[in-house]
Design goal:
Elements: E1 13-24, E2 27-38, E3 42-46, H1 53-60, E4 68-73, E5 76-77, H2 83-91, E6 93-96, H3 108-113, H4 132-144, H5 160-173, E7 178-182, H6 190-207, E8 210-215, H7 218-224, E9 227-232, E10 235-241, H8 247-255
Organism: Nocardiopsis metallicus
InterPro entries: AAA+_ATPase, ABC_transporter-like_ATP-bd, ABC_transporter-like_CS, ABC_transpr_PhnC, MetN_ABC_transporter-like, P-loop_NTPase
Protein name: Phosphonate transport system ATP-binding protein
Length: 266
């Protein structure tokens, strides 16, 4: 670069996969995957069941490690990270699951409080054992997702959509920089799914989160994400901003299973 020209910083990679291969025995779950999510970007992973979406997400917080290739998240070399470094990284990454993973017998508020376990010392058993500041913060997060009035109800008395909103509040209490969502609306009716996806988008924008979200619904992905990465049998067959995709191109991720030709877009 010309020394006299003003330097304009480019987008900062929050998550970077470089030629990642993951094998489970004879199964190649990820095959030379290279994907970058920049800070604040909302990236959707699309692909058939078994195409590698969950495996990719689990590599972001080091729940799984690559057989080969590099994974860098928030500046941390994940495969090289050990013990404390990996735990510190995981505290910066929130996770929302298809099945919510709430403790049904606990109150909604206590479930949200568990999101702070990474930053309060010692085990916690029961709501009063959490510092008051955490309980207040948890209540504020519940308010944010529209469920403050349900704080003292058992979590398993809520609808699926409400439970997922609680799970989002719990993830937010963690104050994450990256949010991973593994088919967050697969168990919800269309209206609840819409509300949950809106909510994720809203909190992501407010907190400038980088989001990686696996979905099966092409239309939802197109209206919701910034970028779509299509996976087929562990390979990236599409990586494109949604603005450069139309529905037929996105549907091709599903329609062309079995074809030897990668779907190339953009
Ligand atoms: N722990 C594991 N042990 C063995 N094989 C695995 C394991 N995890 C994933 N696989 C295999 O890796 C491949 C990719 O699975 P993955 O769960 O990542 O797909 P997916 O796209 O998330 O599917 P779905 O949409 O059904 O959740 C599949 O063939 C799966 O059987």
């Amino acid at each position: 670069m010309d020394a006299a020209s003003p330097s304009r910083p480019g987008p900062v990679p929050a998550v970077r996969f470089e030629n990642v291969t993951k094998r489970f025995g004879d199964t190649v779950a990820l095959d030379e995957v290279s994907v970058t999510a920049h800070t604040g970007e909302v990236l959707v992973l699309l692909g058939l069941s078994g195409s590698g979406k969950s495996t990719l997400l689990r590599h972001v917080d080091g729940l799984q490690m690559p057989t080969s290739g590099g994974v860098e998240v928030l500046g941390v070399d994940v495969p090289a990270a050990r013990g404390g470094e990996l735990r510190a990284l995981r505290r910066r990454i929130g996770f929302v699951f298809q099945q919510f993973h709430l403790v049904g017998s606990l109150t909604v508020l206590e479930n949200v409080c568990t999101g702070a376990l990474g930053r309060v010392r010692g085990p916690r058993l029961g709501l009063p054992t959490y510092p008051r500041a955490i309980r207040e913060e948890a209540l504020a997060q519940l308010d944010r997702v529209g469920l403050a009035d349900r704080a003292f109800q058992r979590a398993d008395t809520l609808s699926g959509g409400q439970q997922q909103r609680v799970a989002i509040a719990r993830a937010m209490l963690q104050r994450p920089e990256v949010l991973l969502a593994d088919e967050p609306v697969a168990s919800l009716d269309p209206e609840s799914a819409h509300q949950v996806m809106e909510l994720i988008r809203e909190v992501a924008a407010e907190e400038k989160l980088t989001v990686l979200c696996s979905l099966h619904q092409v239309d939802l992905a197109l209206s919701w994400g910034d970028r779509i990465v299509g996976l087929r049998t562990g390979q990236v067959v599409m990586d494109s901003p949604v603005t450069e995709l139309d529905r037929d191109e996105a549907m091709a991720i599903y329609a062309r299973v079995g074809s030897a030709d990668p779907v190339t877009v953009g």
